[in-house]
Design a protein that fits this description.
The protein has 184 residues and is mainly α. It has six helices and no strands.
């Protein structure tokens, strides 16, 4: 009986090892592929750190959108920081990302939360410089205003001579009334 027990335990262990190996083989392949990708990315990072300035290739899109399946984390203060860093007003920022001025205002005041598509667009501007921004704004025909507001000009409507009140001659004015003295 002891021999049968040993044989059954040995067979169970052999089959279990075989099943585990079959389950782990595809995972080991994925791990080796991921290790290769990490090494390639480490080389790219090392090259980028070694270069003094990033190279801009004209064939690349000016705005690098974040992939659609990746969640972007951005909050109200982050939205305002991006906008202020780029030196944009709320309306300019809204035009740039394709939203309304009211939406940008509500996002910054934490009244509402932007949809994922707008979060991705805003995230693309995080690492952007002012020169790249100027190029994009030129493409989208968005004017960059100067700091501060321009004073509003007062509009004075022109009045035609017929609409003016007729002038009264000094003789036609009402006579002045002398103050009455109280007698006691």
């Amino acid at each position: 009986m002891a021999d049968i027990r040993k044989l059954l335990n040995g067979e169970i262990h052999r089959i279990a090892r075989k099943e585990i190996k079959a389950e782990l083989a595809p995972l080991a392949l994925k791990i080796s592929n991921l290790k290769k990708i990490v090494l390639e990315q480490a080389k790219i990072i090392k090259e980028l750190k070694g270069s003094s300035s990033p190279k801009f290739e004209p064939n690349q899109p000016a705005v690098k959108e974040v992939s659609e399946n990746k969640d972007v984390r951005i909050n109200a203060s982050g939205i305002k920081k991006i906008r202020v860093k780029l030196g944009l007003s709320q309306s300019q920022f809204a035009k740039l990302i394709g939203a309304s001025l009211l939406s940008v205002s509500h996002w910054e005041l934490e009244k509402t939360v932007p949809r994922a598509e707008f979060k991705r667009k805003m995230a693309a501007f995080r690492s952007m410089g002012k020169r790249e921004l100027a190029k994009i704004m030129g493409e989208k025909n968005i004017e960059k205003s100067k700091r501060g507001r321009k004073p509003k000009e007062k509009v004075v409507p022109e009045v035609s001579p017929e609409e003016k009140a007729p002038e009264v001659a000094p003789e036609e004015k009402a006579p002045e009334v002398a103050p009455v003295q109280n007698e006691q």
